[in-house]
Amino acid sequence: MDWVIERIQTGYVDVVNPFNRTQVSRVSLKNEDVKCWVWWSKNFKNWIEKYKNQPQIFKSYKGHYFQFTINSPSELEQNLNISLEERFYQLDWLIHEFGSNAISFRFDPIILYKKGDDRRIRSNLDKFEYIIENISSLGLKDMIFSFATIYAKVNNRMQKRGYIPIDPHLNKKREILKKLLGICKKYEIEMEACCQPDLIDIMGIKQARCIDANKIERLLGEKIQKIKDTGQRKGCGCFKSKDIGGYSGIFRCRHNCSYCYASPAMK
Questions:
Q1: Is residue 187 part of a domain?
Q2: Strand partners, 39
Q3: Which DSSP helix (H) or strand (E) runs through 137?
């Protein structure tokens, strides 16, 4: 966050293409050039502290939108040392400060796995209903989800840590989703699938748009340019935006989740 504030005060950021490090593009961070910030995290403690300490920096922009991931506590999220209750408190604070229309709740990803020689199939769904109940009580009505994509580096990392990831077939996903949809219906929450084209329209599941120009328009109360982001993976519903983050160096996430497709960590 210190880096973000410093770049805001500078007025721009130079972004390195992760696939071609010789290609650098300059992105203006002037408030007249930025329509809306979209912030992603599993723990907004640091963000909230910075906002409280320097509110004028953040309030100089028209909009802030939050992608807040809250999964069941899991051995696969080994460095996420924060309770569900603290995250619910953060979520409640963000809703009171920015409104429920500025928040997208994510339970992401859903993952199945085995541990060591134990043949039982485990998952991170054990607190799902508890989380949904609390999310609903705060006035949110949507949930973005996906099943974990088991890339080679994800498989290698998990196996090094003693876990065997499972990529369930479509029928198994349907079986799981039937139970989750029943819980969500009970609390009036709609499920939206992120980059899961084979799950769209199954029992009412909708297409997720994590960068959603329509929601941002409503948040800002003005029309904005809408361009489909064709540079994302199959099934992505996002609109085009400027990503100023990264996966390494100062950007590297310290949560070190075993299933993460973005983290370069192997240990």
A1: yes
A2: 66
A3: helix 128-137
For residues 113 and 166, the answer to whether their CB atoms sit within 8 Å is yes
* 227-247 pLDDT per residue, tens: 888 878 778 889 999 999 877
What distance in Å separates the CA atoms of residue 145 and residue 208, rounded to the nearest whole number?
8
Q: How much is the pLDDT for 229?
A: 82
Q: How far apart are CA 17 and CA 3, in angstroms?
A: 18
pLDDT on residue 146:
97
Task: Describe the crossing of helices 170-186 and 128-137 by its angle, rounded to 10 degrees.
Answer: 40
Residue 206's DSSP bridge partners are 192
- In whole angstroms, what is the distance from residue 209 CA to residue 194 CA? 7
Burial class (CB in 10 A: 0-12, 13-18, 19+), 88: middle
Please state whether 176 falls in left (phi above 0), alpha (psi between -120 and 50) or beta.
alpha
With a cut of 70, which residues of the chain have pLDDT below it? Answer: 264-267
- Distance between the two ends of the chain, CA-based, in angstroms? 26
Q: Which domain holds residue 55?
A: 29-240
Reduce the DSSP state of residue 157 to 3 states and report it. helix
Instruction: Residue 120: give its domain's CATH number.
Output: 3.20.20
- Per the structure, how many domains does the chain have? 1
Which pair of structure tokens corresponds to residue 146?
Answer: 């996906």
Residue 121: inside a domain, yes or no? yes
- E-assigned strand segments in 111-181: 112-115, 122-123, 142-147, 163-166
The span from the CA of 98 to the CA of 101, in Å, is 8
Mean pLDDT, the chain, rounded, equals 93
Query: Is 177 part of a structural domain of the chain?
Result: yes
